[in-house]
Each structure stands twice: as C-alpha cells, then as structure tokens.
Amino acid sequence: MRGFSRAGFCALAWSLLLIGSATAQPATDAGCTASPSAAGPQVWRCDNGVTIVAENGARFELKDANRDGHIDAVELSDKALLVEVPKKPGGNPFKVLTPQAIAAVRGTKWAVDVAETKTSVFVADGRVGVTRRAARGRGVVLGPGEGVDVEATGPLTVKTLTVKTWGQPRVDALMARLGQ
C-alpha cells in the first residue's frame, strides 16, 4: 500500500508540474514523455522520434490511432505546437488535427497555431499537406518557408513567407512563442 501511495503522490506531483504550461492528455501509452516546465514551452519526446514543442497554455491530446503504442496524431484545440517528425517511408502520415484543418506529413518540421476561428500552418523544413477538416476536398502542399491560414470557409491558398501576411515578423512571433 505504501508503494501505491508513493506512486500516486508522484503522479500528482508530475501533473501539477504540467498545469500552467501545456495541457495534454497523458501519452505514456503512446511512448512519449514530457519535460517539466513551470513557464514557457514544454517539450514532448516520443520513442518513435517525434518531438512536440507546446506553447505555454496549449491544449492538445496525443493520439495513437492505430493502437501500436506510438503517437501518430495530435488533436490541437488552442494555441501553438511545433512538431518535428522523422522521415519514414510509407505508412500513414503523422497528423495534427485542429477545429479547422488537418496537417499531415511523413517527415518534416512545422508549426500549427489555433485561434478561435482559424488555424495557421507554417513549414520550417520538408513538406506538409493541409486540408480543411470539415469539408475534405482539395488541399494545399506547403514547402519550407510557406504557410497557410485555414478558416471554416473561403479559399485555401498557399501564402509564401515573403508575402505581407506571412512576413518575417509573423514567423518570428510564432517561433518566439514556441521558444525557438
């Protein structure tokens, strides 16, 4: 009984460390561990090579859709994540699901930012496919330095970072929120 109490206390202490930083569902079954952070971004490292940097206060859930014991998706409902996925041939792509969009990839580094009515996706390295979540249809493929804003309606178009909307100040602001 004493060992159980100690384990319960450790679990409670660990969860208290996570409160106020990023809020995620426990990912122990998906092979991920979080680095405790009282303030600032929190880093999740997974045994399949996936790394997730969560903005302070980000709300997300790590998912193991195919139940193989490894994370293969993240459901992001608020704030921003920076995700790095190692390249792997074949198989299902890693996905970040938001209220407005789905960003899928087989190996790259990219950021996803969720606000009330839109999701923004920025690619630092590699390629990311982005589609609307509700009305699956034609999407866009982003390359390094490209970003897209996805709203519930309207055109889904790629915006290169040299364009006013995705200028360097916007990229710098997003990356600063993620400790980059």
TrEMBL record:
Transmembrane segments: none annotated. Keywords: Signal. It comes from Bradyrhizobium zhengyangense. Gene3D superfamilies: 2.60.120.1440. PROSITE patterns: EF_HAND_1. One of its GO terms (molecular function) is sigma factor antagonist activity. It comes from the Bacteria. The keyword Transmembrane helix does not apply. The keyword Cell membrane does not apply. This is FecR family protein. Residues 1-24 form the signal peptide. InterPro entries: EF_Hand_1_Ca_BS, FecR, Ferrdict_sens_TM. PANTHER family: PERIPLASMIC SIGNAL SENSOR AND SIGMA FACTOR ACTIVATOR FECR-RELATED, PROTEIN FECR. Residues 58-128 form the FecR protein domain. Pfam families: FecR (PF04773).
